[in-house]
Model the fold of this input.
Amino acid sequence: MFAGKTILTGVKPTGTPHLGNYLGAIKPAIRLGNDAIAQGGKHYMFIADYHAINAEKDPAVLNQKMKEIACIYLAGGLDPEKSCFYRQSDIPEIPEITTILYAYTPKGFMNKAHAYKACVDKNREAGKPDDDGINMGLYTYPTLMAADILAYNTDIVPVGKDQVQHVEIARDISGAINAHYSKELLKQPTYCFDDNIAVVPGVDGRKMSKSYGNVIPCFADDATIKKAVFSVKTDSRPMEEPKDPEEIIVYQIFKALASPAQLQEMAEGLKQGKLGYGHIKNMLLSAVLDEMKEVRDKYNYYMAHYDDVEQLLAQGATKARPVAQATLKRLKDAVFGR
Ligand code: TRP
Done:
């Protein structure tokens, strides 16, 4: 499926990832990139720091988030030699391409983009003016994202549902430009979903999310992870009472991590009333610590040797830039009639 294709993913630096982020987004993205490379495709992975400044105005906080996310992708197995791993702001051609794309982007596309509309809806709910707190970075966000995608002749953007519309906007913009100049100046991207993605419930059973305060902070120390795992909601039924595993939150989280044999052990124990909540929480804790052991060690190593990471990102930018430069040149030649 990926042979000869270019796959591109951008990630916003948004604070230390939790177990849901790691299992549901980061790990699958790394796996997908590595699969694509193994099949003879090209893989670009970048940290969308220009996108991040729309919301995060504290440079120290932003820098910390940037470091964490870079180290986590490397710790999770992204191969910086084989993938092209870089920072968006290291490629000055991206904002230049964005400026050209603006001239072909109907304002209406931005009005109906989900990320912007969600902010307007929030303002309305709070009784505030529609545009309260909305900057132009947020408003024009999909055009910058289109430049990210189109600069590298991307074939496929792996996405979650929330990003589909943004890829479609990139398609529409590139289609409009190609049609206007009657040639394929820009490759038209498509998106794909990863079917292996786990949705991880949080400690209260709702989707794990920082905004719900129900996360398992899997990059924290053992004691903090333990505290979170033991806070997973249970009820007061005695151990002996047979239970439907699917109704037990500990089991639902365990599903995202455990091997089939481990999963069966927990399911049978619950059904037969042989495992209590303390038991299954310990099983979940072991599974989380096993899953994270190597990744956390590597993560801590990279955080402590951040100069190495900087160097890897710089190398990535050196690989990525010529491609973006060629795209920019094609566009400038066409639009300015050079
Ligand atoms: N908008 C994406 C997000 O919020 C991040 C992103 C920026 C991106 N540019 C991209 C994703 C290009 C894929 C392709 O997660």
